[in-house]
Structures are given as structure tokens and as C-alpha cells.
Design a protein that fits this description.
Elements (H helix, E strand, L loop, with lengths): L2 H21 E4 L3 E4 L8 E2 H7 L6 E5 L2 E3 L6 E3 L2 H16 L3
Antiparallel strand pairs: 1-2, 2-3, 4-5, 5-6
Length: 97
């Protein structure tokens, strides 16, 4: 690959990153979504911010919570669901039904 080809590839990559960056919607809880995505797939904000990679987080980690399979960042995407799950777990542990 020539120097010119390397620079052209780098330029293309930077332009693609800018397009994605304009499409990013930030949420409380360390995750991001894409504005153009109607399904609102959740991605790790840490991986995007540090490596410019869109890594889909695992939302089956725990009810209302997520975990990034790449950097292991965890967070909450649904506080109410997470709270209810915590209460249910507590009640199970202390024997309340």
C-alpha cells in the first residue's frame, strides 16, 4: 500500500467516524444509541470514546442493567426495572413473598 493509499484510507475512516459521531445519542448510565436506529440498540460509551468502536452491550446481564463484553463496563439502562429486581432478590433472600 502506498503512502497516498494509506492517507486516503485514513481519511475515509475519519469521515465515517464523523458520520457516526453525529448520529450518537448519549444516555445517563454509560451507554449510547444511534439516533437513526429505531430499535435503539445500546452500545458502550467507553468503547466509543476511547477506541471509536461501536460495541453492543449485553442487556441480559441483569434486569435493567448492562455489561460491555469488550471492556466489562457495567451500568443501568432502566433504573425502575433494576430497582424492582433488587427488591425481588432481597425479598427472596430474606424469605418474604
Amino acid at each position: 500500500m502506498t503512502e497516498l493509499e494509506k492517507l486516503q484510507k485514513e481519511n475515509t475512516n475519519l469521515k465515517e467516524r464523523l458520520v457516526i459521531a453525529d448520529d450518537i445519542e448519549r444516555h445517563k448510565g454509560l451507554y449510547i444509541t444511534r439516533k437513526s436506529d429505531e430499535t435503539k440498540i445500546k452500545y458502550c460509551s467507553r468503547c466509543w470514546d476511547t477506541d471509536h468502536k461501536l460495541i453492543q452491550v449485553d442487556t441480559n446481564y441483569s434486569p435493567g442493567k448492562f455489561k460491555c463484553p469488550n471492556c466489562k463496563t457495567t451500568g443501568v439502562y432502566d433504573k425502575e426495572l433494576s430497582r424492582r429486581n433488587g427488591e425481588a432478590l432481597f425479598n427472596t433472600l430474606v424469605g418474604k413473598h
